[in-house]
Amino acid sequence: MLPHLPGPWTRAPSDGHGRGLGGALRTGTADDGSLTLSLTPWRGRRGRCSNRPVDTPKAPGAPADGEGSPVGRRLVLGMLGLGAAGLVSAPYLQRGTESALSAVSGKDPTGVTELLPNGGGFRYYSVASSVPHRNAGTYELRVGGLVEKPGRLTLDELRELPQQRIVRDVQCVTGWRVPSTAFEGVRLSDLLDAFGVRPEAGAVRFTCFDGIYSESLTLKQAMRDDVLVTLRMNDEPLSHSHGGPVRLYVAPMYFYKSAKWLSGIRLTREVQPGYWEKRGYAVDGWVGRSNGRDDAPTAA
Questions:
Q1: Residue 166 sits in the same domain as residue 260
Q2: Phi, psi values for residue 178, rounded to 5°
Q3: How far is 297 from 123, CA to CA, in rounded Å?
Q4: Residue 147 pairs with which residues in a beta bridge?
Q5: Pairing between β-strand 177-187 and β-strand 227-233 as defined by DSSP bridges
Q6: What is the gyration radius of the CA atoms in the chain, in angstroms?
Q7: Looking at the structure, do residues 201 and 269 belong to the same domain, yes or no?
Q8: From first to last of its 300 residues, what are the pLDDT tens digits of the chain?
Q9: Residue 219 domain-assigned?
Q10: CA 165, CA 107: separation in Å to the nearest integer?
Q11: 186 and 274 both lie in a single domain
C-alpha cells in the first residue's frame, strides 16, 4: 500500500588512536633487529563495541606484552608501498575493496573481517552469521502496531515517495567516525503520519530481516526531521553491506541506532530496548552524551 504524503517536499575511519583497526596497533623491535607489529583488540563491559584491550592468555614462548611476531623489513616496506599506491589509486579501488570485504565478511563467522576498514572508512558489523539479500522483487517494509492503517510498502513504493537528503558525520560508539556522509530516504515522521499514529503510542520499534537485530526510539525522537528510512548513501543505492536495500538512519545518535536491513516498523506504548541496549548500550544513544563518550555531536 502506497500511503498519501502531503507536500510540500524538498528533494534533497579511524579515530586517530589506532581504534579504527579494531584495537591498539603497537610496533617494536625483535632481538634480531626486525620490526614487530601487534594488534590488541578492544573490549569493554558492554560487549564487542567498546574500547578496552582484551586480556588474553599467552601461549608458551609467546612474545612479551607490546611485542608481536617478527615481520621482515622487506614486508614492512612492501606494506608501506601498498599504502602509498592506495592513496593514488583509491578512487578506482574503493568500490572493489568494499565489495570484496563485504562478500568475505558476510561469510566470516569469526568476525575477523570486522577489524578491517573498507575504502569508505566504515566497519562491517553484523550480529548474524549471514544475512539474506533483498531486492525490488523480494523486499517489503511492514508498518503496524499502534497505527490507524497497518500496511506494507515495497521497495518501488518507497522510491516513489518524496525523498530527503541529509549530510552528516557518522559516529560509531567504538570510536571511528566518517565525516560528511550523505543519506537519502523518506522521513520516518512522514511515514508515521501517513499510516496514522494512535494516541496511546509512545515509541517505535524497528526489526530487521537478518532475523536478530532490533532497535527502538521514543515517538518524539522518531518524529525528528533527521531520522530517515534510508534508500541511498553517498548518492548511490544502499548496498547490502551497508544495510540495504533499506536501513534506518538516526542522525544525532551513535550508529548502532541506525538499524541495517530494516523490515519492520511497529508503534508501541513504551520503548522496548533493542539488541545492543539489552547488552548494556544506552537506549538514548545521543552522540557525545551517552555511553560514557564525549564525541562531538553529529546533529543539533
A1: yes
A2: -115, 115
A3: 20
A4: 197
A5: antiparallel
A6: 21
A7: yes
A8: 555 554 434 333 333 333 344 444 444 555 544 444 444 444 443 333 333 333 334 444 444 433 334 444 454 445 445 444 444 444 444 445 445 544 544 444 333 334 344 545 666 666 877 899 999 999 999 999 999 999 999 999 999 999 999 999 999 999 999 999 999 999 999 999 999 999 999 999 999 999 999 999 999 999 999 999 999 999 999 999 999 999 999 999 999 999 999 999 999 999 999 999 999 999 999 999 999 999 999 998
A9: yes
A10: 32
A11: yes
Q: 36 forms bridges with which residues in the sheet?
A: 28, 70
Measured in residues, the chain has a length of 300
What is the CB neighbour count within 10 angstroms for residue 123?
23
Are 37 and 63 within 8 A, CB to CB? no
Host domain of residue 51: 19-115
- 104 and 158: one domain? no
Are the C-beta atoms of 242 and 122 separated by less than 8 Å?
yes
What residues contact residue 90 under an 8 Å CB cut-off, 6+ apart? 119
Question: What predicted TM-score, i.e. pTM, was given to this entire model?
Answer: 0.65
Dig out the grid coordinates for 196 from the structure: 496514522
Round to whole Å and give the CA distance between 289 and 283.
Answer: 12
Instruction: For residues 193 and 257, state if they share a domain.
Output: yes
145 and 272 inside one domain? yes
Helix boundaries (H) for 106-228: 155-160, 188-195, 219-222
